[in-house]
């Protein structure tokens, strides 16, 4: 399988393979990588795959996208990644061996697809754990190493650290805003004692940490000399890994391959739902992809109006579903590439506007007129909606959900009337409530349950360096440790 850039590789060598793009980020022309065509999955494959384990299904799907790793090696990587031991936090009564079990709220009609059973209790573990094993494998083959530098305000950083801890050839330097994360999130990251994990708490805001990462990435000489890499949400391997659970969710929620299913996805950077879009393009019987945002509704606005209006940093709201607080959606360009008939010149023209901080308007275009072909619907949610939804789900079903999943359930309730009664609607559960205890207390007047193996986490010794947001000082810290 060859990969292309959404902007057409202007002036660049074309068509790398999977391992060539695994360790990088953007394509050299500033675009995002996508497979040159989507593998078509027919009825025969669906019939053969229905009974597979998660790891078996992951191998079948990923081997369509990854043709430059020998099949036996890829199989071993999938088997090692998707185990009930790694993804062990299923709700009592749900089958941990399924990795992403469905927990029905209304049997056969409305369910949660549990994606947050991994080590850091958020869906990012689904892809990041695979990425850790892929990185280790490819780096060993090439005799190389990498130093991952990132900034996090919560879920991404911890998912990356738990995926990369103890991996040969990989070091992680993760910047976080000092004192700005929840006690649980801090304990999760800072209690790691692995030699190859470095936590740096920056005395500033998330944006200060992010600016330092950007400044280092723009210093091409430093970047090359110290082999600086990233694991951000535009990484193609993460999107590919996420395609798997859409298939698994379909098989869990239906009994026959004649049925259809709908997914409702709490969204920020459009990485999760982009994988759903690709699964549907491959031939998965998806009736509807429902996109849910919080108050930061740039994506909901696009699907309602055809106008994509990235927000300024100052316009970005701080909400109680913080992992969806984005001003522009970094993976959205992948969908727009398909929407405009995979024409890289059109994408490049649209993102000339976006990169200059201007909106684009497709409302009167022939492309937006065809948006119905892509089966999207959307909606948004507020803090009050979130509290009400968490309360109602707990009261009606005895199930505690997190703030992001609540945004999904709220929008799924709005849309469910438009979906035929024999089509199950699965809300993707993107985090467990214990990560957002403060809002759970506000909604329910009680504390969320802490998984047994994480009780006492906050009392463990922590390993973190507190530093000023000073570029030179942080560069020196890295240089002294690689
Ligand atoms: C990252 C994240 C999201 C948003 O996912 P995108 O791929 O950025 O759309 C939603 N919920 C949680 C809990 C997350 O960590």
From TrEMBL:
Belongs to the threonine synthase family. Transmembrane segments: none annotated. It catalyses: O-phospho-L-homoserine + H2O = L-threonine + phosphate. One of its GO terms (molecular function) is pyridoxal phosphate binding. This is Threonine synthase. Pfam families: PALP, THR4_C, Thr_synth_N. Gene3D superfamilies: 3.40.50.1100, Threonine synthase, N-terminal domain (3.90.1380.10). The keyword Ligase does not apply. The keyword Repeat does not apply. Pathway: Amino-acid biosynthesis; L-threonine biosynthesis; L-threonine from L-aspartate: step 5/5.
